[in-house]
Amino acid sequence: MRRFGRSLLSFVVLLIVFGFLTGSLSQSQIESPNAPRIIYIQLPKGRCVAAPPGLPADRCPGPAAIVNWIAADGRDFIGSIGYEDSDKDIIKVTFRVVEVTGEGSFRRDQTFSFEPPLGGQAADRGAFDFRIFSTAPQDVTLSVILEDSKKNTSQPKIFSFKAVGSDPVITKIEFSPEIPIGAPRELKINFIDREGDLSLVTLQPPSIGRLTTCQRLRQEGAQEIRDSLLGAVDVSQEALGQQEGQLTFRVVCPNAQRVQVRVALSDIRGNQNNPSLLRQPETFEFIVGRQLTADLYFLDQFGSPGGDPGQFSSPQGLAVDSLNRIFVADTANHRIQIFDQDRLRRPGKPPLYIWGSRCLLREGCTDPDGGGPLVPGEAQFDGATDVAIDGENNVYVVDSGNNVIQKFKIDTACTSPLKPVVPGVCFVTKWGSRGSAAGLFETPLSLAVDSKNRVLYVTDKLNHRVQKFDLNGVFQRAWGSRCELERASDPRSGCTDPDGTGPLQVGDGQFNEPTSVAVDSAGNVYVADSGNHRIQKFDPNGKFLARWGRRGASTAQFETPRGLTIDGKGDILVVDQGNDRVQKFTNDGRFLELWGDSGKTEGRFDFPQDIGIDAEGNIYIVELLSHRAQKLGRLP
């Protein structure tokens, strides 16, 4: 350093303070109890760099987040070292450069020493000043050691500072790493600008293509204005004359996403912050949406109580087609609603399709097909509880109260023999009525189409069985009978031993009010045996293969399981209705993970009913009591 003749750390002591340090002072481990101790370091003088918790407030003002800086223009800045020395014989102060950025006045491993004029000091506690300067922008970390006349040395005390040039500097970016969808949050950017002429803050994505829908909120009188979060913001009036300060912005994001933002500062002369010279945060990242597991997040929700388009009343069924459209069986509104991704949470955008009205046989129905008052009309329902879609845009609806399955075709003009329901939706056929014979139902609840679009399966709840049909309703087979496992030893439980392997297998292939069914890519059939709080697995012909679960709230236990679906890996997702959660298993019943809890907020459930997965792996869950559907998924 050319100017060390004037001294990096001047031996000229401007002030000696005795006896004014009180409180609980921390003590480092030292080799000798008589060695001096460094209590605090301040740079510039009056700013705390290092100090114990007990230091009086007027000696350490402001929060710990304060960044210590000096101007990199060659001027001297005064710092202060607080000490404790029972022998009152400190003779030497040594500074060593521990870490430094860039080229300038300081170089790594440089050492500088001076003798503080403390001879004859009257107190064993005090403070002395030192001078320091820099001629170039640098981040500097120094180690300080005190030495007494007996060669005892203090434990080293580390402190850092920034030598700031004419460019503005970002010292801290404050923003929550996770924010709720639609909730405004404050973004705070702390800065140093020694010239006091900061002009622009620019927010941009770190890489091309990583845009965001987040917005910046600002007030103009009584009006709230929303601008894009990304772009340049004029802060010249707010930051005028400030050498250091904090800029605050309000940010809101309308949908779930992972957001990365790069921050840049510019002054009126065009100087910009330069992280290659001084260490400073350039980017910040946050998640919009509630995190449920390590990589699963709440993404969106749609629906609210009511009978208007887009509203629900006790919905029970949900399915997703290959185009990622969401089909909801809006049970108590006796209708089906279909949403595309652009209509999930967009105000003023109705469902893509909506059809259905109520037909309760014992009260009489309208009868648009002329079949008489005892036959429901096409697209009339008494509590539609589930919906399924095949690969040819055929939609199958469980008309539970009428014990009927109805079939429709969408995205087409209705030509004979198809009958128009609403534009784009045609009635195809229906089958079933109340009874226990083959092809009849006693409160059907759920159905599933196999992956090869050849057959469908229906859970016949109060007949305690599963029925299999072709896609036009021709009956093929049924299996199951009543077995209430909690009373298996009681002859009235209905439990038998169909495979003859003994009492440990009692109830295999039997059900107690089955509620849901799903089919994997191999054609295996999974049934939510709700009353027995378990899942059963069968081959396509109804042969029993496996089972798992029992009543309870621990992992792999259920309280009335309800909805089932299968993801792209072949794992089984189970809506654990009574426990307000979802559990995930391999196809042989090995537990993988769970998420959810009771509640009405994001990622919590209020009597969940059914579940579906789209082509991107996003998960949709419909809730009976919250009258909504939630969308969960992984973030890119």
Low-confidence spans: 1-30, 51-65
Structural class: mainly beta
Largest sheet: 5 strands, antiparallel
- Total helices: the number is 0
Work out the radius of gyration. 36 Å
The gross shape turns out to be elongated
Average pLDDT: 87
Q: Let me know the number of strands.
A: 47
Sequence of strands across the biggest β-sheet: 1-8-5-2-3
State the separation between the terminal residues, measured CA to CA: 50 Å
Strand content: 35-45%
Amount of helix: under 10%
Brief digest:
The protein is mostly beta strands. Helices cover 0% and strands 42% of the residues.
Can you describe this structure?
With 636 residues, the chain is mainly beta. It has no helices and 47 strands. The strands form eleven sheets. Strands 1-8-5-2-3 form a five-stranded antiparallel β-sheet, with no helix packed on it. A five-stranded mixed β-sheet has the order 4-10-9-6-7, with no helix packed on it. Strand 23 and strand 24 form a beta hairpin. It is elongated. It starts with 15 loop residues before the first strand and ends with a strand. The model is unreliable at 1-30 and 51-65 (pLDDT under 50).
List keywords for this structure.
single chain, mainly beta, five-stranded antiparallel β-sheet, five-stranded mixed β-sheet
What are the SSEs and their pairings?
Blueprint: E1 16-18, E2 37-42, E3 48-50, E4 69-71, E5 77-84, E6 90-100, E7 111-114, E8 125-132, E9 138-148, E10 157-164, E11 169-174, E12 178-179, E13 185-192, E14 198-204, E15 215-220, E16 223-228, E17 231-234, E18 244-252, E19 257-267, E20 283-288, E21 297-302, E22 317-320, E23 326-330, E24 335-339, E25 353-355, E26 357-358, E27 380-381, E28 384-389, E29 394-399, E30 404-410, E31 419-422, E32 425-431, E33 444-449, E34 455-460, E35 465-470, E36 475-479, E37 516-519, E38 525-529, E39 534-538, E40 544-548, E41 561-566, E42 572-576, E43 581-585, E44 591-595, E45 608-613, E46 619-623, E47 628-633
Parallel strand pairs: 4-10, 12-20, 26-27
Antiparallel strand pairs: 1-8, 2-3, 2-5, 5-8, 6-7, 6-9, 9-10, 11-13, 13-18, 14-17, 14-19, 15-16, 15-18, 19-20, 21-47, 22-23, 23-24, 24-25, 28-29, 29-30, 30-32, 31-32, 33-34, 34-35, 35-36, 37-38, 38-39, 39-40, 41-42, 42-43, 43-44, 45-46, 46-47
